[in-house]
Amino acid sequence: HGEVWRAVRSDDARQKQLILKRLHAGSAGMLAGLRERHFGERLRGTPHVARFEDAFEHGGSLWLVFVDEGFSLHDLLYTSSRESGGGAVVVQPSPFWLQLRQASGQAVLRHILRQSFDGLARTHALNITHRDLKPSNVIVCSTCTAAPDAPSAEAE
């Protein structure tokens, strides 16, 4: 549904790291983007939910702005490479995934799951259902875990 960009807010002395999502007018993703903006505003300040900053329209596109919290769980769990000769992309478990499967990684896994479930419980308490929870929609950072990207969030 559109494009995703990493950005730095240059007019901010702190050089705030941001994620920009661009949704093109007339695309199927535009309606999802409008829902994501609505729920982003409703969930603003909710712990363990992606920090929605702003939304604006420019050049016929809807732009959604979120705080850049880290990397997706998918990016941490898997590595990908092309087969020799430019063939298919091969996805394999990452070293992080292998660590989680060891006894020493269980506390990290529980921490990620606990924060993810807490964010979901808080959204459900507001009668909002995510509808698209998957590793690429869970952001992991050193101090938090957030369930971002609520384009298909739906009021119950």
UniProtKB/TrEMBL annotation:
Pfam families: Pkinase
Domain Protein kinase per the UniProt entry, residue ranges: 1-156
SUPFAM superfamilies for the chain: Protein kinase-like (PK-like) (SSF56112)
Origin: domain of life: Eukaryota
GO BP: any one term: mitotic DNA damage checkpoint signaling
InterPro entries attached to this UniProt entry: Kinase-like_dom_sf, Prot_kinase_dom, Ser/Thr_kinase_AS
GO molecular function terms attached to this record: ATP binding; protein serine/threonine kinase activity
Record-given protein name: Protein kinase domain-containing protein
Lineage: Eukaryota, Haptista, Haptophyta, Prymnesiophyceae, Phaeocystales
